[in-house]
Specification:
heterodimer, A: alpha+beta, 2 domains, 5 helices, 4 strands, about 15% strand, B: mainly alpha
């Protein structure tokens, strides 16, 4: 512990899914804002327990898919009708019917990229440095232990230790930035 | 139940007039039904730590002794394939057995064969996810890897079958850019739709697979014993912490990926079937092709999933995670899709007769009784008869037998594509131009070599990445349920 290290937050370990679930409800009800739950797998109902709103990833997907579909249609119209019309088999130079399969695939392609990009952007990932990685105990967050971290920037940080102890934490440690 | 006797009985006994003065029948109190207990997806009540240790252990520890010989043989075959591709490109497509009526033969057969195999991975990862089939978690990672690798194998054939591959890759042919005469690719052709379908399919499958891998890469990062592994797993894990704020977006993204991949997988093989159905070759020009191809693709894909999973679960001692029930369920998918395929074979014949086109009818008679009768009946034996063995529980639970049938299904589905492509082409409208296709050694070894590529990449996958989705399997255990006693809930189940 160096002298000029800043406190990042208080990390509490829980040993069961039910334990972390109840603890999250208590931390939420105590009015904390800057806190998070860390689990090796998504726990069903945890979003409500934490008071999170519905994820916004879907908006990204919609924008990506919309762009894909209309850029596909526009591209085919431009190439096969506008820029260089080429009659093949007496078929029309452009109709949305034959342009549909390719536009459909592009809807999915750009929708998928937007979904991945949107998920990463909303999660502020990639973020290869994280003060929590300094905790040896936190390595179990991807194995079989469950954690709550209340950040030092939360206005109610002073009472955090008491709240986490009351919630039944198996271990509590201070994490430095 | 004090006043139960006073409740009037609504339905009178059959055949008798309702008598209001008759004594009402006795009401028997029935015990409440037993709560339905689902069969566990992970056997022997394994702990979360055990799951991490066992699955991550496979790609962290040393590979078993057979891995190196298997890898060397596979890599050798892969090298053989690329050498033969080099021979083809430098010499010309004449090194294959193609001739004028049969302009497509093993090349496109292999393409459809490999792309079809990929479909099971997406079906497992996307369709079964949307249908809330939780058993998919044990098999989806390896099946998705199989998809990616199969698409890579598939992609080689349509490119090299053009002979002068540099033209195929040049603007104006596959790539939507003008060629030397300022002419753009023409989008009325299903062959160009196929380029978009297959490349979208490969890309989206890769993204979906990677999204699924992120939490498991974080697990491997946190368990890494040396710096090199820690660095690479850490880099690709993108700093994943398991934060629930992240999981919330992640799960939404995962569901959207499943929602995007489901129509995608149906469209890809439909478009592959358009390559044939939109032409006017007898035997190809049928509207049944899209659903028939999709069912066949899933059928062959599950065959390949079983071919890979049945040995894998035994070799790496994963029987508690990929249980006998998982194998049984996959056998049932084979049974269902195999029945659809069998129905489609029958319906094709019926329509060939009912449609009244003499060319169509000839094409089908020629399939079954012409010079390629042996290919047709191999296909029928492998695809129509063999899946029906899975009606019997013994056949679904005996691993050696399941493995054997899965190989038979793979062989049958290769023959299906061969039958569709070659028997339709080799005798078309003009008897004067009829011919017979015989493969050359280059045809044979290019195809054999593509298995080398497939196995090489799959062996590397199980060597370096978790072959089972660790976080997803944990999520379906009772310990993961905060309302289950094993998850630490007090006061019993619910």
């Amino acid at each position: 512990m160096s002298a000029n290290a800043k406190t990042y937050g208080l990390l509490a370990q829980f040993d069961t899914a039910a334990g972390i679930f109840e603890a999250a409800i208590q931390v939420r009800d105590a009015g904390y804002r800057k806190w998070d739950v860390f689990t090796p797998f998504p726990i069903h109902g945890m979003d409500d327990a934490m008071g999170l709103k519905n994820s916004k990833v879907g908006y990204f997907t919609f924008c990506g898919g919309f762009t894909g579909f209309f850029s596909g249609m526009t591209m085919i119209w431009f190439m096969n009708k506008f820029d260089y019309g080429l009659v093949v088999g007496g078929k029309p130079l452009f109709t949305p019917l034959f342009a549909f399969p390719v536009s459909y695939e592009l809807t999915i392609l750009l929708g998928a990229f937007a979904t991945l990009g949107g998920m990463l952007a909303l999660n502020r990932l990639p973020k290869l440095y994280n003060p929590l990685f300094k905790s040896e105990r936190f390595k179990k967050a991807t194995d079989d232990k469950f954690f709550i971290c209340i950040e030092a920037t939360d206005p109610k940080f002073a009472e955090a230790r008491a709240v986490l102890e009351k919630a039944g934490a198996a271990a509590i440690e201070l994490v430095e930035d | 139940m004090a006043n139960a006797a006073s409740i009037p009985v609504a339905a009178a006994p059959k055949g008798k007039q309702h008598d209001p003065h008759a004594a009402p029948p006795k009401i028997v109190a029935i015990d409440p039904p037993q709560e339905f207990v689902r069969e566990p997806l992970v056997l022997n009540g394994r702990s979360l730590a055990w799951l991490t240790e066992r699955i991550a252990g496979v790609c962290e520890g040393k590979m078993p002794l057979w891995w190196w010989p298997a890898f060397i043989v596979s890599a050798g075959l892969m090298t053989l394939m690329f050498s033969l591709v080099g021979y083809l490109v430098s010499t010309g497509v004449g090194v294959w057995g193609l001739n004028n009526p049969a302009d497509w033969a093993w090349d496109i057969t292999n393409f459809v064969f490999w792309i079809g195999i990929g479909h099971a991975g997406t079906l497992i990862s996307a369709v079964l996810f949307l249908l809330r089939q939780k058993w998919r978690t044990s098999i989806n990672r390896a099946a998705e890897a199989m998809t990616l690798i199969a698409v890579a194998c598939a992609g080689i054939f349509p490119v090299v079958h053009t002979g002068r591959v540099w033209f195929a890759l040049m603007p104006g042919y596959l790539i939507p850019a003008p060629n030397a005469n300022y002419i753009w690719p023409q989008f009325r052709s299903p062959l160009l739709w196929d380029v978009f379908a297959v490349s979208t399919y490969g890309t989206v499958s890769l993204l979906f697979w990677y999204v699924g891998l992120i939490p498991d890469l974080a697990t491997l990062r946190d368990r890494a014993k040396n710096k090199v592994r820690g660095f690479f797993y850490g880099l690709f894990a993108l700093g994943w912490t398991g934060s629930n704020r992240h999981w919330s977006n992640y799960e939404k993204a995962y569901m959207i990926f499943a929602g995007l991949s489901t129509p995608l997988v149906l469209s890809v093989h439909s478009i592959v079937s358009f390559d044939f159905a939109v032409s006017n070759v007898p035997g190809w020009h049928t509207t049944i092709f899209p659903p028939y191809f999709v069912a066949g693709a899933i059928f062959s894909g599950f065959g390949m999933v079983l071919t890979l999973m049945v040995p894998m679960r035994t070799i790496f001692k994963l029987e508690d995670i990929i249980t006998t029930r998982h194998v049984e369920l996959m056998c049932k998918v084979i049974l269902a899709t195999g029945s659809i395929v069998g129905y489609a074979y029958g319906m094709e014949f019926f329509i060939a007769w009912y449609g009244g086109s003499p060319y169509e009818l000839y094409a089908f008679k020629n399939r079954a009784f012409g010079p390629y009768w042996w290919a047709y009946w191999s296909m029928i034996t492998c695809n129509v008869i063999s899946p029906h063995l899975f009606w019997f529980k013994w056949c679904r639970t005996n691993m050696v037998f399941v493995f054997f049938v899965s190989i038979v299904v793979n062989i049958g589905m290769w023959f299906e594509r061969f039958v569709i492509i070659v028997t339709s082409l080799h005798r078309d409208y003009l008897p004067a131009s009829w011919g017979y296709f015989t493969p050359t050694w280059v045809d044979v070894f290019t195809f054999v070599g593509s298995f080398g590529l497939f196995l090489t990449l799959f062996l590397l996958f199980i060597r370096f990445l978790p072959a089972i989705a660790i976080s997803e399997v944990k999520g379906v255990t009772p310990q993961a349920d905060p309302h289950h006693p094993l998850g630490g809930a007090k006061g019993g189940h619910h």
